[in-house]
Prior knowledge:
Layout: H1 3-19, H2 34-44, H3 56-65, H4 69-79, H5 82-85, H6 87-93, H7 95-98, H8 105-116, E1 124-127, E2 132-133, E3 137-144, E4 149-155, H9 159-180, H10 182-186, H11 189-202, H12 206-223, E5 240-244, E6 249-250, H13 264-282, E7 284-286, E8 294-297, E9 301-304, E10 310-312, H14 315-330, H15 333-342, H16 352-363, H17 376-387, H18 399-415, H19 421-436, H20 439-463, H21 476-503
Antiparallel strand pairs: 1-3, 2-3, 3-4, 4-5, 6-8, 7-10, 8-9
Helix pairs in contact: 1-9, 3-4, 3-6, 4-6, 9-11, 12-13, 13-18, 13-19, 14-15, 14-19, 15-16, 16-17, 20-21
Amino acid sequence: xxxxxxxxxxxxxxxxxxxxxxxxxxxxxxxxxxxxxxxxxxxxxxxxxxxxxxxxxxxxxxxxxxxxxxxxxxxxxxxxxxxxxxxxxxxxxxxxxxxxxxxxxxxxxxxxxxxxxxxxxxxxxxxxxxxxxxxxxxxxxxxxxxxxxxxxxxxxxxxxxxxxxxxxxxxxxxxxxxxxxxxxxxxxxxxxxxxxxxxxxxxxxxxxxxxxxxxxxxxxxxxxxxxxxxxxxxxxxxxxxxxxxxxxxxxxxxxxxxxxxxxxxxxxxxxxxxxxxxxxxxxxxxxxxxxxxxxxxxxxxxxxxxxxxxxxxxxxxxxxxxxxxxxxxxxxxxxxxxxxxxxxxxxxxxxxxxxxxxxxxxxxxxxxxxxxxxxxxxxxxxxxxxxxxxxxxxxxxxxxxxxxxxxxxxxxxxxxxxxxxxxxxxxxxxxxxxxxxxxxxxxxxxxxxxxxxxxxxxxxxxxxxxxxxxxxxxxxxxxxxxxxxxxxxxxxxxxxxxxxxxxx
Length: 504
């Protein structure tokens, strides 16, 4: 039954895009095949008055804003890619990051009281009107009784129901796409939508976000490449979160890039390295790094806010990512291909050598080119196009990682267009490779596997019933334990010997 209203909402989305001339805008007619131009011309007959004014980005931003949180998130991602869509288009979409229509201060105060279970005055001396309003929540400056300035994040009233409706609509669209479009099946459209919707659902409990903010602050402190404000736990509830004030200017303000003393090259470099360090070294990363969530203090201090979407990847995915990046950096395409096969992303029935050849066709056109012509985002796009020949499916666990990588690159490009992404990424990837894929790390991994196997066998042996005989026999569990201890010791000696040989 949910599919019926979802279907009509889906039709409504298409109608809004057509009315705004944002589906196939007239400005790109010259890029379309003749048959598609005919369809575009027909659809344009139904466009409204607003479609005859404004730029494509302005029309698309207006349409997306009316569609809800999921559509706004898409617009935020597009706004980070000025290198692909152009500065004008990106700027027209940029207000979707933090400059949406706010709700009233009176409503915000009511939400705070309901969520915290006490009047706002019990915690805050004052609460000011919102300074930023996004798709899910808005932020208010406030002052604590101890004099600290803080930011109070409050969810939009009714946002949970809106996200539920978005989820039903997007899932219906994904099912229809997988049924009728072959590419959508390879894209794993339903898994992709489920990942996006799950991330939006998690944004509606600000207690979880506070936990993530606190965790990421500790992670960021280890490298010093990025910072996060401290959580004020007394001001945290399901629909309210309080953080210490983030200093500096938001990167969404053009004035931040020309402020006195700002080192744009260093800021762009730190942004790329901070993201990679979070993902590779710690397996947890801020997955919503657009300009509206980043504050800049001269010369190059970056403070991140809004931790509603946090990405997590396991050790296997981290190794896969590092192997791919390092393989492209060093032009070792066999290594990149092997990483895909070992991760199970490409079926074993395919040829490793042919896949490496295909990867070379993707890597060589960009490696060694001028920095301002190289894009990791485009490389990922081309890589996915090539892997279609080898029956590689999109991995849902990589969705947030790839989306964030594309967004971070877009922000860095706007800060410093000539940034050399490969040279910037190399120290972080090289550090991971040296640490995690070294012979000593492999030895430790083998030892951990031996230890785990020994414990499992001992537990199994100790469950065996003792034999009923007059003569007391040795306990099988203890005998096995001694045997495995000896085997483990012998293995340890062998592995240490190998390590000495490898490092001598």
